[in-house]
Every structure is written in C-alpha cells, then in structure tokens.
Specification:
The complex is a heterodimer of chains A (261) and B (344).
Chain A: H1 4-37, H2 40-46, H3 48-61, H4 90-97, E1 104-109, E2 115-118, H5 119-124, E3 127-135, E4 141-150, H6 151-158, E5 166-174, E6 180-186, H7 187-190, E7 196-201, E8 204-205, E9 215-217, E10 230-236
Chain B: H1 7-12, E1 15-17, H2 21-46, E2 50-51, E3 64-71, E4 74-81, E5 84-87, E6 93-97, E7 100-104, H3 118-146, H4 156-169, H5 184-206, H6 210-215, H7 218-222, H8 226-253, H9 256-264, E8 267-269, H10 290-305, H11 312-318, H12 327-330, H13 332-340
Antiparallel strand pairs in B: 1-8, 2-3, 3-4, 4-5, 6-7
The chains are: A alpha+beta (261), B alpha+beta (344).
C-alpha cells in the first residue's frame, strides 16, 4: 500500500487548495456580485428577463382568465398592510372622519372626457366583489374580500384616447422623504375583469391602513402595484416623465414595473 | 479544444468521449445558474424569513422561521422549526458585521447581492431562472436526440442493483454491480434530478407568480396553496444543494482530474476495459504519453499489490470485466461524436 500514500497526500493537497480557493471565492463572490448588482449595464442585461417574463406570462394567461377566487372561510383574520404609513395631512384626517365627503377621484390625461367622481358616485356605479389572494413581493400572502368599481367602467366614462397606453395612479401617501406614492399599469391589465378600484374590504368601508378611501386591485400582479390612497388617475402614452421614469414609486427603487412574477 | 497527436493513442488506451459539447456547455452554465439562483433565493427569502403551509401566511402559523430577538440589547439569532428553537447567533438571524451585530436571516456572504436588496436579488433570480430553464431544455432536447440520456436513465433493472451498489460503496461488498458507463446509484441521482427536482423547483417557483396563477389556477393548488409552493421551493433548493454537494464529493474522490477533464474536454479515461488484459500488459507502452504512463503504472502497481484495496482508483480496477467492454465505442452516435470532435 506504500505506493498509495503519495497519491493520498496529493489528493489532500488538491482538496486543501480547492477548499482555500472556495473560501476566497466566496468572500470575493460577495464583492463581485455587489459590484455587478450596482452596474447599470449588467442590470439592464438582467432586466431582459422581466420583458421575457411579461411576454411569456401574458401569452399563457390571455386577457380574460381570472385569478383564483376563494370562499368566505378562506378570508385571512387580519389583512396585513405594508408600505408607507397612511397620509398624515389634516385634510386626510378630517375627510376620513366625514366619510370622505370632500374627497374626489380626478381622471385626466389622454382622455376625451376628463371627469371627477365622488365616493358616492363611484359606489352607485356597477360593482364587482371578489375574494382574492394578495401576494406581497416580500413573500407573504393574505386573502381578503374586495368590493369596488371596475376600472373599465371608469374608462367607458372618460373615453381614453387612442394614444393612451398606461393609467397612472396618483396617491396621497408619502415616504419619509415626502415623495408621493404612484403606480402605473398598462391598459391590458386596466381592462382585466378583476381590476377594480376597491372601496370595501371584508364587507367594511376600506380601512385607513389598507388605503382608504380607494385603492387598486390588480390581481395579475404583486402587492406593490395595488396603489392605495388614490386621489387621481391619469392616462398617459409613456412613463418617462413620471418620477424617475420607471413608472412607479418602487420601480424607481429598482423593482420591476411588470410585477406578475 | 485542441486535439493533440496522441488522440489515436488515447482511443486505443480506452479513452472515451463521454460528454458532448452541449452537455459540457450546459453543465457549466447550469453550475453558474444554480449558484446564483440559490444565493439570490436566500436574499429573497430574507425579505420574509418564514415558511407556511397553505395559501396564506398567518403570522402565528409559520412552521419555519429564521429570526432574531433583542432582549436587553443582546441580539440573538435563532432558527425555529415547529416551535423548537436553536440559537444560531453569528450565522443565521443575527450576523456580526463591521458595525456590530445586525438582524439578517441568511448572512451577507451567502446571498446575492451581499447587501440587502430584494429588488436586485429578484433581477438576478429571474434572469438565471430563465437561463436554467432554457439550458435544461437545450440539454434534454439535444441529448434525447443523440441518445445520450439513455446512458444514465434509471430503469427497473437498475433499481434491483441499488442495494448491491450501496453495499459496494459502503465496503460491504467487493464486486461492483456496475455493468455500464454509469452505475445504478449515479443513474438514480441524475434521473431524480431530471424528473423530480428540476420540474418541481420550476413549477413551485412559477406557482408564486400571480400572473401564472391567473393562467393556471391549479398551479398553486397542486402544491397545497401559494405559501406551500413557496415552502416547497425553499426545500427543493436545498435538495439541489445536497445533490451538488454529493456530486462535488464524488468528483473529488472518484478521480478528480479525469472527471474534470471529461467535463472540460469531453474525454474520460475508461479504466474498466484495461483489466481484460493481464496487469502486466497495462504497464506503459510506447504509444502512451509520459503523463499517462505514470498513471497507468500506478494503476498497474496498485492492482498488482492491492487488487481489492479500498482506494477508489484501485476499486475500479478491481471491477470484473464487463460483458460489453465499452458501450461508448460500440454505438454509432458515439462514433459520430468522436468524428465530430476534431472540428471543434
């Protein structure tokens, strides 16, 4: 067996070297990936996946397939809220106390008939009720029962121009720097049967924590697309002039505009 | 891939062209993809380091958590599984950093990127998710076409040989039941990665996508709900980690140079056929280059002195002569592949 010993030590040497390089690689790895994660060119390459996902997933889903709707017994005991704290302005607080008598939803931009709706007016329009699952980008899910007016109903009233490609949601909540929340979806998602402007959660008026008086439900996408505390809708042809040009508050922080994945 | 003049000698001394170009390419791009998928996945998990069964994530119902406490300014990290806690301060839950301890499920050196960014981790994850899926498709389609997959597809007859192979690895049995290029355990490992692990990890990942759940309402339900799919995805990722660990250990111990060479250049030195000849004839001949003659000499010696030694190389030597000496050279595809090689 003597002749085997040099081989074993050679193997040990090899293993030792590999182990060493492995550890070096691991600590180097962190720096490399941190650098690559902050490199714009690398990031725009990685963003190709977002476009691929959007095209492939939309192709599979079609336009009118519905998100799973659950039964009353599936509703979560508490509908978790996330994101910015509710708006803290006096106007918001007093209006909340007065059942939103002052609040109005302004609809403008590339539309033939700009309009403004009170909450009562929205509630008098045909409504849709759905028990759906809300999926946060962080990973958690809750199920809630929503009632609201379909966004397509609003579109039928204001008549978007042919050039309009997106609808932008202007919100009342701000982050700690005072930047207003905003979001956008394209007209494909806007006319989805389950895309609603919700004013009720679990048979109660929409709570302040969940976006009172009006929030978006867009069941094809993750939670951050579901703009809360909406004050206005704007129809636009592109997203470049909004915020930093990515189409939403979280998009400006690096999250994907297409959040169907 | 420069072919050298000794190729003829290699072939005559039982070199087999084991891995075609597509296999080698997809192997290494998969290695990269799996590493990035795993590490960016841990970063994504860090955004909500709890797992649940079912559709939703009711906080009190998490069966697995990596979390931290901070009683009296003493941050402790812990892992909790079905109510049982293990202190993991310094590794999981709480990490020691330059600025002192910080709460973090998986430490920065295990995640991509290292700094906390769910947005960046998602971009890495989805790009390499696509690469992984496309890679796998290319590999499967090509290798089904050339008949390469058949070589290590686990069959019923392999299943019967699993106990014998296990016994052989555990040194409880001297003869290996291996009768083809891949042994039954190898076939079982690879086949289970192809038909169980890979489809399930892709499907459970896809089940987390709201848009795909619209397309296929049954998809999250098939896993028991979206949160179950998320839990399965996490567990399956560790399935890949264990497979990779086992794979690397086997590569390191069962002839590292030979294995690496075969996955880089395609050429693998098949040792089984050499024992058809008496050991003396396995000694260096004029057709074998110096480096190889050294290896051959070692094999011959070890075989002569310790025919049933526990050393892996000798083990392979001790294998009885297979009925079909070299399946690789016997099939037309294999010959075609060999012919194709010099062009590369």
């Amino acid at each position: 067996m003597k002749n085997l010993n040099p081989k074993l030590s050679r193997r040990n040497l090899l293993l030792g070297t590999l182990q060493g390089t492995g550890l070096l690689l691991l600590s180097g790895c962190e720096k490399v990936f941190d650098g690559l994660s902050r490199n714009d060119k690398v990031q725009s390459l990685l963003e190709l996946a977002e476009h691929g996902s959007r095209r492939a997933q939309r192709l599979l889903a079609g336009r009118n397939k519905l998100a799973q709707e659950f039964s009353v017994k599936d509703i979560s005991p508490k509908f978790r809220s996330n994101g910015n704290p509710p708006p803290i302005t006096m106007d918001y607080a007093t209006d909340a106390k007065n059942q939103w008598t002052k609040w109005r939803l302004d609809v403008s931009g590339l539309v033939t008939q700009p309009a403004s709706f009170s909450l009562t007016e929205l509630k008098s329009m045909p409504s849709r009720t759905q028990i759906t699952r809300h999926d946060c980008v962080e990973g958690w899910s809750v199920i809630g029962k929503w009632k609201g007016v379909r966004l397509e109903e609003i579109m039928n009233k204001v008549q978007p121009a042919a050039a309009a490609k997106y609808v932008v949601f202007r919100c009342m909540d701000t982050d700690s720097d005072g930047t207003n929340y905003f979001e956008s979806i394209d007209l494909i998602d806007a006319v989805h049967p389950q895309t609603i402007l919700a004013y009720e959660l679990n048979d109660q008026p929409l709570p302040v924590d969940n976006g009172a008086p009006l929030r978006l439900r867009v069941e094809t996408q993750l939670g951050y697309k579901h703009a809360k505390y909406i004050r206005a809708l704007e129809f636009v042809a592109n997203l470049e002039k909004l915020g930093q040009g990515k189409g939403g508050y979280w998009e400006d922080q690096g999250y994907e505009w297409y959040a169907g994945i | 891939m420069a072919e050298n003049p000794v190729k003829a000698a290699r072939q005559s001394s039982h070199w087999v062209y084991r891995h075609n170009r597509v296999t080698r390419l997809t192997h290494w791009s998969n290695a990269l993809a799996l590493m990035i998928l795993f590490m960016s996945g841990l970063q994504i998990f860090n955004a909500h380091p709890h797992l649940y069964w079912g559709s939703t994530s009711e906080p009190e119902k998490a069966f697995f958590s990596i979390s931290a406490t901070n009683d009296d300014g003493d941050p402790r990290g812990y892992v909790e599984l079905y109510g049982r806690q293990v202190d993991t301060t310094g590794f999981l839950g709480v990490q020691q950093g330059v600025f002192g301890p910080s709460a973090r499920a998986f430490p920065s050196w295990l995640t991509v990127p290292g700094y906390y960014s769910l947005a960046a981790a998602r971009r890495w994850h989805f790009f390499f998710g696509w690469l992984f899926a496309l890679n796998g498709t290319l590999y499967i389609v090509y290798n089904l076409a050339v008949g390469h997959l058949r070589k290590f597809f686990f069959t019923f007859s392999d299943a019967k040989k699993v106990p014998a192979m296990l016994a052989y690895y555990l040194h409880l049995r001297k003869k290996s039941p291996q009768d083809s290029e891949y042994n039954p355990l190898q076939k079982m490992a690879y086949t289970s990665v192809f038909v169980i692990l890979t489809p399930l990890v892709l499907l459970s990942g896809m089940a987390m996508s709201p848009q795909l759940d619209v397309a296929f309402n049954w998809l999250p339900a098939a896993f028991g709900g979206r949160q179950s799919a998320r839990a399965f995805h996490f567990i399956l990722a560790f399935g890949f980690l264990s497979f990779t660990f086992g794979h690397v250990v086997m590569v390191l111990t069962q002839g590292f140079v030979n294995n690496m060479r075969s996955m880089l250049s395609g050429w693998y030195k098949e040792k089984m056929p050499t024992i058809i000849e008496p050991p003396v004839k396995a000694l260096p001949t004029e057709t074998v280059i110096a480096e190889e003659s050294k290896i051959a000499a070692e094999h011959a010696e070890s075989q002569a002195q310790a025919p049933h030694s526990a050393v892996p190389d000798a083990k392979i030597q001790a294998t009885p002569a297979p009925k079909t000496p070299d399946a690789d050279l016997s099939t037309p595809e294999k010959q075609a592949e060999k012919n194709e090689e010099p062009k590369s």
